[in-house]
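Protocol step 4 of 6.
Sequence for PadR family transcriptional regulator (Ferruginibacter yonginensis) entered exactly as in the expression construct, tag removed. Do not edit the line below.
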Amino acid sequence: MNTAQQLFKGSLSTIILKLLSEQDKMYGYEITKKVKTLTNDEMQLTEGALYPALHKLEADGLVTASIEMVDNRKRKYYALSKNGKKETQYKLQEVHQFIAQMQQLLQLKPQM
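Step 5 output, structure tokens:
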């Protein structure tokens, strides 16, 4: 696993929360497709990574799940809970702060 993939995996819950904040609800495969599209096929979210993250978010009360019938098949949709909406804002703020700090650090010139 390369560094970008490791960073991606470490940010998975934040990514899921952000995607759900932009939609009323999404199902698993829809989330994986969206990540693939947004990253121009650079990052792929596997079911093996997605569903444990969704289940943890659900257990933590940040995401709710509902089952709907679509084309005579059951489909499980995920949506942000009230706490999930608050947590999304907090997580996004954390990410922005981290990026700003990294930019500061990487722009430093070594002293002689």
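Step 6, annotate. Helices lie at 3-10, 12-21, 28-38, 47-59, 82-107.
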